[in-house]
Amino acid sequence: MKKKKLKIKNILLVLFIVLFLFSTIKITLFWRDLKSNKKETKELLEEVIDIEIDKDSNEKVKIDFDKLLSINDDTVGWIRFNSDKVNNPIVHTSDNAYYLNRSFEKKNNQSGTIFMDYRNKSFDDKNVVLFGHSMLDKTMFGSLSDVFKKDFFNTKENNYIQIINTDNEILTYQIFSYYIIEKEEYYITTSFNSDSEFKKFIDTIKKRSYKNFKIDVTTSDKILTLSTCSGTGETSKREVIHAKRVENKE
How much is the pTM? Predict the structure, then answer.
């Protein structure tokens, strides 16, 4: 009986050691990927982004898309948001899985890359959907959780998202809805069969918003949707932000 108990204890001890080593390796690899991705992004920023300030103190941003495309031909644009906490290239490929665990340089990396929904054709679609991981170090879409903090929208600039397309045109989007919801397919619908269907979509996502922005959104508007996980681990909740394209910041 004692031998049997000792055997069970030894088996449990081995299992504990294996689980401990497995967890340690996973955590080590996770933080290694975070560090690697942050380094890669920093180097990209230094190499490809040029910001000029004109005489009226306005920023003029230009991205070296030739350089970006030479590194990754899936490049379709650049996103800037939340005081440049989100300041990354955007990629687009034939599925929504490839860039979940690959860096901009297409290396295996748990941080992934910000990518456009595979069903989108261009930034002129009715609803352009961008995905990114909510990383613990606030990289990728990790800083989108700031949107849910009190007074975030009191800062005028925080109401806008900038997309720069590969022609170096700056597309400005004004946020009109944000919320947390269980994972679903509806809010990432990219095309609509009719204006009435699109109108219903607009009404639905506006009603979900935690704040009434009192912004008119019509079927002639083009929408940008940002989506990331809410919380850590295998969460089923998503943080969602919707914005409409505007001509100039108001």
Answer: 0.82
